[in-house]
Amino acid sequence: MTTAAMTTLKIDMVSDVVCPWCIIGYQRLQQALKQYPDLKVELTFQPFELNPNMPPEGQNINEHIAEKYGSDEATIEHNRQQMRSLGMDLGITFDTDAGSRIWNTFMAHKLLMRAEQLGRQTPLAMALFEAYFSERKNVSDPEILVDIAAKNGLSREEAQTALDDEALGQQVRALEDDYRRVGVSAVPTFIFNDMYSVSGAQDPVVLGKVIAEILDKNDSRG
């Protein structure tokens, strides 16, 4: 598509760092974007806490899934194996089991927002996904978050300042409220050019068709 070279596609990915479908959705989006090598993409990870009321000590993952979705142990394990298989196909390691824990992600979203303001967000987002799913780290622990940030685009001082910044926290809450207000209830949700919304970790073919439609509309207006 000839206009791809002169078009910027804005993508807001509403996501959470403890959501396996979010990292799957991100990788599928990258596959879809390979069809448009000349397309400039501005991708921003936007905050959405799946478990805003999660206590500081977190919760056993199986217990959490059973409470939230009513799943039994056999179903949880079957789904976990399916997720591992999906991850392998996309280069993602899901090293979770029945003993894993899920954590609150408010502090992680504060870090991601500051990284976005500094133009360094994507490497940090990838590192947070890996820390939780592959390394089983507590992504609500400030010390762990500072360590991760310091290796992925932020200084330790920048990271600690972000975690301590109450105004930044208010911005995160406001954005989360805005997304819920417009009907976002599940992640990932992709919002293209502030106009077109796609919910779920869709197949790359589906995402590619959405992008094609957006570029076609851009052409017709051009």
TrEMBL record:
Q: Which Gene3D superfamilies match?
A: Glutaredoxin
Parts of the chain that traverse the membrane: none
Q: Which CDD domains match?
A: DsbA_FrnE
- Boundaries of each DSBA-like thioredoxin domain copy? 11-208
Q: Which SUPFAM superfamilies match?
A: Thioredoxin-like
Q: Which PANTHER family match?
A: GLUTATHIONE S-TRANSFERASE KAPPA (PTHR13887), THIOREDOXIN SUPERFAMILY PROTEIN (PTHR13887:SF41)
Name the chain's protein: DsbA family oxidoreductase
Tell me the organism: Allohahella marinimesophila
